[in-house]
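hey can u run this one w/ adenosine monophosphate bound, need the structure tokens asap thx
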Amino acid sequence: MLSFEKARQVILENITPSGVEQVSLLDAVGRVLAHDIVAPWDMPLWDNSAMDGYAVRSADCGQTSCKLKVTGYLPAGAKGDGIEVNPGCAVRIMTGAPTPSGCDAVVPVEETDDGQQEVTLLQPVTKGQHIRLRGEDVMSGTFFVRAGAIVRPPEVNILATFGKAAVPIHRRPVVAILSTGDELIELGRTPGPGEIVNSNALSLAAAVIETGCIPRILGIARDNRESHLEKLREGLKADVLLTSAGVSAGDRDLVRGVLDELGARQLFWKVGVKPGGPTAFAMHGATPVFSLPGNPVSTMITFEEFVRPALLKMLGHRQVLRPLFKAVLREKLLKKPGKVQIVRLLLENDGGRWFAGSAGNQQTAILKTMVDAQALAVLPAESSHFAAGDEVDVHFYGNYCDLTEVSR
Ligand code: AMP
Ligand code: MG
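ok here u go:
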């Protein structure tokens, strides 16, 4: 049986970032830049004023107060051609306007008497003050956003500043979702005896949407070879195929056998993790195939721990695992040694330290604990006993909101 860590490694080694398409700036938000972007010009493009005030020669203004003749006006948008600051003179200037020749400092209007014909400077002037230099933000020819950057408002702003209306972005993989089982009915019907609503298709689609990929729900394969063949064949046309259920050792568990018939190369089956033990992973050509256990809690947790990092890698993300941090256990946790155990937790931040307690019944059939959980602990395989006060590795799951903070 493969370890949890090794299983993740095998998956990520087999996944490559998807191809690149040009995407308009706002459609790129939340997606990942595929190439470094080079500045086509200096930013700012010319030396300019950082303040509304007066462009001056600092040598004229050594003493605490001095009087200068106002000889010109440069509002924002002015080109500044032909305007010069002569000795003993000042030019009125607005923020962003190019600084005129001769000028080596800008005096903010607040530090003057705001004169129109003549201006009195009320404070000493330092050479270079309040001038933004050409290229001080970004130099022409340098990379100003790098491949792997997530496009957020700051990236949008700087890309727009440099006139980039469209940017190279990793494609969004289409993820096919196949449910298997004779007991399943589609959402909208009330389940009769022995029937279960195909909720996994929807929670998997939701999880796919959260990553930024595109879900394609294929429906239900019934527990016979023909139905599996037809549906799996269809699923293998997508960029990624996810199946749920039918991957344990029962005689109705057909997924792996039929995938094998269709030419998929199984890379592992059974992982040392609870929940999620029966998970299988295969490659069919370049298409990764994840066969997840059918129990809804196991399906969601194996998606979170195995599929999500893979999809994020395809989307071009560099950080594909959620960051782990330490939380102090409020109560003891027991587990069997030999497998990693994923535990659903509630979190609380107290004085800058994280504390964690169980989110409820940890059995894999209990969905409500999944809804309530704010974090998952990844308890290492070798340990079996965690006492109250021990620190464990956790990562956020879903929307963390510290309710104790809110109620204060
Ligand atoms: P199996 O792996 O086929 O033995 O399924 C394990 C458990 O997951 C059974 O209790 C199934 O009823 C349940 N299950 C399987 N598929 C789904 C699904 N698509 N939606 C909700 N529950 C499911
Ligand atoms: Mg089944």
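The mean pLDDT is 95. anyway lmk if its weird
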